[in-house]
Amino acid sequence: MPPIITALLAFVVSLSQSRQALHLRILALQHQAAVYKRTVPRSQLRPSDRLFWAWLSCLWPGWRGALQFVQPRTVIAWQHKRFREHWRRLSQCSRPVRSAIAKELRDLIRDMSLVNPLCGAPRIVGELRKLGIAVAKFTVEKYRVRPRKPLSPTWKT
């Protein structure tokens, strides 16, 4: 079809469209032209380009007609990928992170367990609470030094 007839048909179609749809179509065509200018041999899309088309597809119902360099299902796949990544990021951040205890406190737990080898983790937790240090039993068990040999006589002796 000659370019003049194509331009006339586009003009007739534009008369029936709303002003907002025309502005969005112009925006879409300008963006495609900018992508073509930026990459001469083959149009390379950046993540910002993908975001633009995903946003435009949500905003404008006639976005498929203005699309020239990728298929509409590709744009929909980009939307699904962004949706999955967004919710994956949100779900990974919800796990509580344990804060590391200070080296001085770890050394104190080790010293207390070496000086009093018969003291277990609950007793060390109690002693630390008396000093105003709140620590969990698991943390004390983790840093407590366990004796290598049994403290009481065994059946061998």
Task: List its salient traits.
157 residues; mainly alpha; rod-shaped; 2 domains
What do the pLDDT scores average to?
79
Query: Structural class of the secondary structure composition?
Result: mainly alpha
Main pleated-sheet profile: none
Percent of residues in helices: 55-70%
Walk me through what this model shows:
The protein is an all-alpha fold and 157 residues long. It contains 8 helices and no strands. Helices cover 65% and strands 0% of the residues. The chain is rod-shaped, with a radius of gyration of 34 Å. The protein starts with a helix and ends in a 14-residue tail after the last helix.
What's the quick description here?
With 157 residues, this protein is mostly helical. It is built from 8 helices and no strands. It folds into 2 domains: 90 residues, no CATH class; 41 residues.
Give the topology, please.
Blueprint: H1 3-16, H2 19-38, H3 47-59, H4 63-66, H5 72-92, H6 103-115, H7 121-130, H8 137-143
Helix pairs in contact: 3-5, 7-8
